[in-house]
Amino acid sequence: MTRKRIALLGPPGAGKGTQAKLIADKTGLCHLSTGDILRDEVAHGTEIGRAAKLHMDRGDLVPDKLIIDMIHERIAKTDGFILDGFPRTVAQAEALLKITPLDLMINITLSRVEVIKRLSSRRVCRECGKIYNLLFNPPKSKTRCDLCGGELFQRDDDRPEVVDNRYDVYMQATAPLIDFYCERGLLCEVDGAQPTAVVLERIMDLLAG
Ligand code: AP5
């Protein structure tokens, strides 16, 4: 595949991380997730991690400047990528325009009710990052990863009260990007309520088009 520059948009739990990993496996494109990078910084107790944790624990966005400084180099270094969780505000989208153009913004849609159902049952492997769902994509054991045997954990920001705030923050700060990218002729929409394999097939069709 030619070096595509794509980004995934959508509410928390829409399936951006799940799809980005699958697309990266299929295409070799570099998966850049601001959420994963931030969680890694928090786990290592870095200055960025300490500054971000307060916002993440509440389900609020981390300030634009910190995010843009953090991701700028990583984007500039690669010529083909899947952005997952960035940009998330109009200020971030404008900053991205100055770093590189995008070929496609894929908006994965999901209702608030489905978001809450999915996030309360999400589990993630502490070792390899594989994402499971106790309802929709259960691991063989509730506590161990099928792939590497690592411990499965529930993200701190998947608590119900935090998920509620994350959805509100998405509607207020991130949903305006739908118009931003629509106006630039870059937006495609995929129904995220379909099974994972169907969502992936639709995205691969869009990438091939
Ligand atoms: P981040 O990690 O980016 O969280 P998010 O955008 O809220 O997205 P999620 O990771 O919760 O969901 P997802 O869409 O990736 O869904 P997943 O594939 O896991 O950000 C976390 C925090 O970091 C933010 O709140 C903010 O504080 C900060 N942050 C990050 N980026 C930032 C930025 N740019 N600016 C400012 N702050 C930033 O799937 C969810 C569940 O559903 C899983 O269990 C999965 O198995 C299941 N599932 C997936 N697809 C399907 C399907 N088709 N059918 C059934 N189940 C499915």
Question: What can you tell me about this protein's structure?
Answer:
- This protein is α/β, with parallel strands linked by helices.
- The protein has one domain: 3-Layer(aba) Sandwich (Rossmann fold).
- It has helices at 16-27, 34-43, 47-58, 64-77, 90-99, 112-120, 160-174, 176-183, 196-208, and strands at 5-9, 30-33, 81-84, 104-109, 122-125, 131-133, 152-153, 187-191.
- It has a 5-stranded parallel β-sheet with strand order 2-3-1-4-8, sandwiched between helices.
- α1 (16-27) packs across α9 (196-208).
- It is globular.
- The chain starts with a strand and ends with a helix.
- It binds BIS(adenosine)-5'-pentaphosphate (AP5).
- Residues 10, 12-18, 34-35, 38, 55-56, 59-62, 67, 85-86, 88, 92, 118, 122, 131-133, 136-137, 157, 166, 192, 195-196, 199 line the site of BIS(adenosine)-5'-pentaphosphate.
- The CATH homologous superfamily corresponds to P-loop containing nucleotide triphosphate hydrolases
Trace the largest sheet across and list its strands.
2-3-1-4-8
* Residue runs with pLDDT of under 50 for 5 or more positions: none
- Shape label: globular
Average of the residue pLDDT scores: 95
According to DSSP, the number of beta strands is 8
Helicity level, as a percent range?
A: 40-55%
